[in-house]
Input
Amino acid sequence: MVQALLITLMSVIPQPTEIKVSNEQFQFPRKAVPVVVSSPMLVETASYLAETLKADYELKTVVHSGGDLAVKGAFIELSLNKTLTDLGDEGYRLCINKNSIEIEAPKPAGVFYGIQTLRQMIQQKGGQWIVPGGQITDKPRFPWRGMHQDVSRHFFTVQELKDFIDALALYKFNIFHLHLTDDQGWRLEIKAYPLLTEKGAWRTENDHDRGCKENAKTDPTFIIPEKHYRTVDGQRVYGGFYTQEQMKDIIDYAAARHITVIPEIDVPGHFKAAIDQYPYLSCRGKGGWGSVFSDPLCPGNEKVFEFVDTIIGEVADLFPAGYIHLGGDEVEKGQWKKCPKCQTRIKDEGLKDEFELQSYFIKRVEKMINARGKKMIGWDEIHEGGLSHSATVMLWRSWEYRVAVEAAKEGNDVIMCPTSHCYFDYSYEGTHTKHVYGFEPVPEALNAEQAKRILGTQANLWSEWIPSPERRDYMAMPRMLALAEVAWSPKELRNWDSFSKRLEKQYPRLDKMGVHYRVPNLTGLVKGNVFLDTVNVAIE
Output
């Protein structure tokens, strides 16, 4: 009870694993506090801490290489302690007393996460900055704590991605999954195929654009920024893309916050933006649409594999991440059934049908990814027709939950992002914050050993109806904070009442960061009231 009360007082999200209370408190002095680091590896982390607090308080970094600590007065110490092996690669220990704040961890990532906890613990009382005393020992439940953003349907600038990364860092997310290519736009420069961005990054207005403009008449978050339009040959087009240098900047910015950027190049479906520029890639020599989705790449054409291999090569060189996401979802197979090259491929490879043809395609692309020292991730459709044990499945279809169970039992790693809880482009009415908080990533059908195959969870933000950073923030937060606690905190410590109280303390912090979050629902009201006299109702 005491621990829960302290967590509520500190307003920390996600909830730390273990807290010990003390009666002391650290008070920031009027002068600049030294931040002592025991290793050059932590200098950048100390600079990050100083940067996040500079608007209110000045910190100065001191590198301590050994011997007695020659610092007078209050100080903050960041150190690496390899003996704390039970904390893993991302855990930390935070000790606070009246004279010092000490954050130690086996790895730099842990020190960074300790800083996020410290940032949320700082309170202002009577013009003074104070931090409640005690000791926190903390580590994450899952190694994969992700947020996804689709920049294909609607484009976001480098700075707008960095702003989102800052919010991810505060709540201890470590994965930023970028959906870079789709039918509506190709967003990453590929030097071998310049038309992908010269033309494939731009489109005339589509139905979703027009729908957003209609919604913008009553909700300004639906306004499509004018900066993403340009005129080409007298035609007004929408779009944008990232040069490889810009993407390196995003990757480095995220890495400094211990966030890995995972690139997604969607194949063999959702490829129309590329096929329109290089039409030989499709079965019928041009881009088009099937009954539901766009025509995919042609697995019977060897030039397709050369094209994809070249792209994978540039992506692998650009992104340090150990994974490349190749999509693999919603593949329209109608053209494959009619394509002589595809049917020849099925016959020559001894495949049963077009589902196994898709599996053949996925496995060939996976070998390209593996050859570059990376692992492949795909949406759960990659499980259809057979899957190699080295592939990681990203479960999105709630109605196909069995795929996660089957893949884990078969020895594949699985990341959970089902539509039921993790699609943050869905409305709050159906996927509200409390519903997200109740999500359990590990399926009950798995035993303890099989459950280790569940790497973690992430939320997805598909941007058909998210044309602006304001709309993105509104759809993501506060649900993102609920998922942060699901991904980090021990299952047995999760408590909605505690979380909701701590969440209230986060809104001023988000205001200060310029985050356009969704204002929480009013409480204490009922759907219907009967007034028998004059009544004044005041709502703040």
